[in-house]
Amino acid sequence: MRLGSSDSALCSPPAPTCSVFAAHLATGPRVLPTAGQPAGYSPGEPGAGGQCLLLSYDSPPLPRDLSAKLFRQAMVESWNRRARPETKAALPLALLRCIRRPFVAPIIPRLFLILFRYSQPALIRRSIQFVTDDVPSAAGVETRGYWLVFSAVTIYVGLAVSTAAYQHRLNKLRVVTKSALVGIIHHKTISLPSATHDNSEAVTLMSTDADGLDGAAEMFHETWAQSLEVVIGIFLLSREVGSIWPLPLILIFLCSRMSRYVAKHLGPRQNAWNTVTQQRVAATSSMLSSMKVIKMLGLQHCMASFTRRLREEELKTASRVRWIMVYYNASANLLGIFSPAITLTLSALAAARRGLALNAETAFTSMAILSMVTHPANMVMTIVPRAVAAFAGLERIQAYLLKPRLLDGRQTRPSAGETAGLAIKVHDVVVGEHHSILNGVSIGVNYGSLVILSGPVGSGKSTLLRAILGEIRPVHGSIQVASRRMAYCSQQPWLPNGSIKQAICGMDDNQDDIQWYQRVLEACCLSHDLELLPDGDETEIGSGGLNLSGGQRQRVALARALFARCDIALLDDVFSALDGDTEMRIFRNLFGPTGLFRQLNTAVVLVTNSAQFFPPADLIRVLEGGSIKIQGSWEEIRHKAHSSISKFSLQHQNDRVVAPAPLSNFTKLNAQPQIRQEAKADLVRKTGDLGLYWYYFRFVGLFNLALLAGCTASYSFFITLPQQWLKLWTESSGQNQVFYVLGFILLSLLSWTSTNGTMWSAVIRIAPHSGLIIHQHLLTIVSNAPLSFFSNNDNGSILARFTQDMQLIDKQLPSALANLGNQIFKLLAQVLLLCIAQRRLALSLPVCGSLVWIIQKVYLRTSRQLRFLELESRAAVLSSFLESVEGLETIRSFGWLSEITDQNNKRLEDSQRPEYLLMCLQRWLNLVLDMIAATVAIGIIAAAVALRGQIQAGQVGVALNIMLVANTTLLRLIESWTSLEVSLGAIARLQALETTTPSEFDKNAIFEPPRGWPTRGQVEFKGVTAVYNAEAVALRGVTLTINAGQKITICGRTGSGKSSFLLALLRMLDVQSGSIELDGVNIAKIPRDFLRQRCFVTVSQDGFLLPSETLRSNLDPERLLGDDYIIIDTLKRVGLWSHFSPAGQSSKEYYRGDGHPILDQKLSSFSAFSAGQAQIFTLCRGILKAEALRADGGRPVVLLDEVTSALDSSTEWAVQRIFEAEFAAKGHTIIMVSHRLGQLSEFMRPRTDLVVRMRDGRLESAVSDLKGAAGD
């Protein structure tokens, strides 16, 4: 792979036509010296000591024949051509058809590798024969010597080149395999029904399963090649040892019985491991995406405990797989270790029976051949568990691909005219097979008209919109649309991570229409918001719009729908989080006589319960029980319709619109700065940094570490010593045969025991022990991090620590540590024996050692940076994938599937660029080390030729046999060290995260409240100024006294600081000046955990649910209640019990000894909530918590954050009654954030309750009379 000129070593694309040999020679010298000064690198970002960081754009693009887009298309076409009905081989065969050309490419170099590898025993035999020739004046001796040296050069250089060519083609095969698999998974994901998707399943398949399959093709090639090597080796062995040649085959057969056991039991256990990993990833992803709500509810430790339990279950399940690996490794090593001992013992006994001694020529040649028989046989058996695990991943992927795709049953209406007639026609639609959600619904929507859907919670309004979108297929009836491209705003707006401008412009081609863009901003009242933000519309909004208020998120989503200029717009309760004045202004801008939707002639369906929007509507449909109860214009139905929600603003109509205070730290949220910072820290870290090793060893445990070190040292000694023992045996002239036989077998037994101990200590002791502690440490850091941490870091980047880093820590790091120990001790032993056999070779050790040290040092620095680039780009792939899944309905409605596909292809290629470059760099390193080993081996042959007569045959045999494995040991040493250092990057990132992430744990919070505190619930703000950071002030000089038992309703324009008021109470904002007191105690002295769990009961507008947990755990996550009757009674009072219990059965019928059959069912087993039902459910959770705390003697303050925004008027009235009965009547202080003041006057207590208006982070007014406030 050629990387361009010397001036731009890392910028030019590799030439796809260059030869492999040139690629490997050219890649290293050009990449390594320029790693400190990559092309395109900004001099303003220096590293330590003049070193600089490689950035993502420094790595060259992939060759054209590795295009992710190309192989995604090929894989989709191949899968679509599969035979039906599908068998287990359907996906493997489809994959093989997709990658057939790169799949066959490694065959030729692999055959040459076999040829050169099996020429080595012949070279050893010829060399020993040359040394032991007793005819010094034999003709042609000098010529034989020259040919011997020439043969050595050909064999060892051929080995190096063929290995490089073979591995290079395998690398390309690995890249295209992953491209094909990730591409087909993503293709399937975006075609599944949005209601049934499980993003954790797709993420696990795309990461864990696909990563395990990128080496599947290599396993296939190694299987046939090494099986062929076994056949060749047996043939050569039969010429050396005669009739005992079948002995290795017998041992192979016996050991293969373990392979059958592994093949039978490993697959299901591997699937079980992947499944629990998927569950943990799902829980972690859910926790990260809802961290703000979790902290408000005081549930971060509950969620951390829940995730920790899943991690423990994951490691427990993994142990079943790991024990099989230990047993299998023992049987495989049994073959490789005992075959030489048994074969040579029998050969020596056979020779003794004939009156002969074991000679050096036969012994060392047989030893070499046996290593070439047992090693490939061992590798083939080692491949079996990997292949089983890989095919288990293929089965999971195939099962995912066979899920039924979304079938769009809509019909496209014939276009009689582009701007006239019906744009939507719904006729007699029924949704729901067993329980009808919609029943016989028919509506028509004309171009340029506004149709409003209204109705109580759960009446089917959102379901009807999703049916029009094509996300739900009706069981009866028809839906006709003029265009399948529709603007869609869901109740919970989906906003991808990026700037506000990117979110509004979406993925359309008309992003450069600045004039239209400005009109959209003005119409959605966003211009004033953007003026106050540090970067304007380039401000990053964060994952899921975390840095925006609920109203701002809705307005950005509405602006996106307007900017797209679609013929049809479906808007699902898009004004629920807006104050009355702002929503009326936006409504007029969009739907008034000169509104933009009217000008665009767009057919609009708006879901809302606000009666103030009814008069301008062309048609109103009121749904109830899944059917249309009332329909017509406002004039036609106004006397029949029930009263709906009313809103009004405390602000004068002629007041100037107040720009909101910024809500958070709008720092750029790309994952790149965080990873780049960590990369800088890792770059300045010296190779073998003892501080980092010690940091990791703390998690490993000193006893486990000592156990591993002892086993690796013992194995390395006992596996190498037989070479010297064999030399002594062949020089004994047949004396003390029993002694040498027993000694050889004893050494084999000790080495086998030691290697089993190494595997056991690494896999059974270190991996689960360190994995559990490190995960817990990471979980503690993240769960204790302040809200600003999640605002400034992308969720995908954080999740990557729990997925990719955990994979490194679980699977690679313990193995790399064990392998490094093995290779270090083995190399020391082999070098010692080599110097004993050929003392003159000791002179080459300083030169070789210095060369290897320099090469690996430069290589390691560059490889670490490339690894960081890979992790950074993988996090971007993960983030993009998660966002795509979460916004699937929106993406499909706008017709952005092709753009999302292109984005996935680009992100995938970006992640593979540093990975492919790193693999090329590794091949260069291996080639250089192979050439060094070849030089030493040629030197041994040359010395044997030059010193003929002065050197013993045993010395030549030992030296050449050691060289058979010494270069492999050296390669594996560098690879193990590199793998360890790269894997330690996960530990370095953890250490950096621990160092740089602030914690909410406050040492100054030393107040120890008595049992049942707070007893009154009086809250006092004294000149409070609260900030998100130094540049983002949320509250400004707030002074307010809230008496015990008082109800305060906070209102104001969206972004005015209402939610910030609650966040300050929960200590989720930093109080810059002033103080907040609860029952006379400064809350700064109260630990945050206690404050959120015991002092406040918070009910948030963003409902937090755990579908994989039980109904009981969702309602009572802290296990405060032990009485099922209380939970059931509360569900009945809020009207949700009927949603869970079968009709006609009483709660008493559900009690059983093994748990409650409803409360202990997973929440996902019940029908899905509507948005309103989800809000009522979270309210039920708050009621139960308040009741539990009252039983303990406390009176916590109740915080209600827009909890009625998705409710219809009658349901809201019922909920207000619940507030009064459950909270106000029982002495709780209530602080409520609400835009809906219409029904509050009915529930306000004169001269007791207050309505507080906020403006620009300040308290503007406080009144107890809503009418007086309205007229103020």
UniProtKB/TrEMBL annotation:
InterPro entries: AAA+_ATPase, ABC1_TM_dom, ABC1_TM_sf, ABC_transporter-like_ATP-bd, ABC_transporter-like_CS, ABC_transporter_C-like, ABCC_6TM_D1, ABCC_6TM_D2
SUPFAM superfamilies given in the database record: ABC transporter transmembrane region, P-loop containing nucleoside triphosphate hydrolases
Membrane topology: Multi-pass membrane protein
Keyword terms of this UniProt record: ATP-binding, Membrane, Nucleotide-binding, Transmembrane, Transmembrane helix, Transport
Ranges that cross the membrane: 146-166, 326-350, 695-718, 738-755, 927-947
Main location: membrane
Any one Gene Ontology cellular component term annotated for this protein: membrane
Residue ranges annotated for the ABC transmembrane type-1 domain, each copy included: 111-389, 705-981
GO molecular function: ABC-type transporter activity; ATP binding; ATP hydrolysis activity
PANTHER family: ABC MULTIDRUG TRANSPORTER (EUROFUNG), ATP-BINDING CASSETTE SUB-FAMILY C
PROSITE patterns for this protein: ABC_TM1F, ABC_TRANSPORTER_1, ABC_TRANSPORTER_2
Top-rank taxon: Eukaryota
Chain ranges of the ABC transporter domain: 424-650, 1019-1271
Statement: the UniProt record of this protein carries the keyword Membrane: yes
Cellular location(s): Membrane
Protein name: ABC transporter-like protein
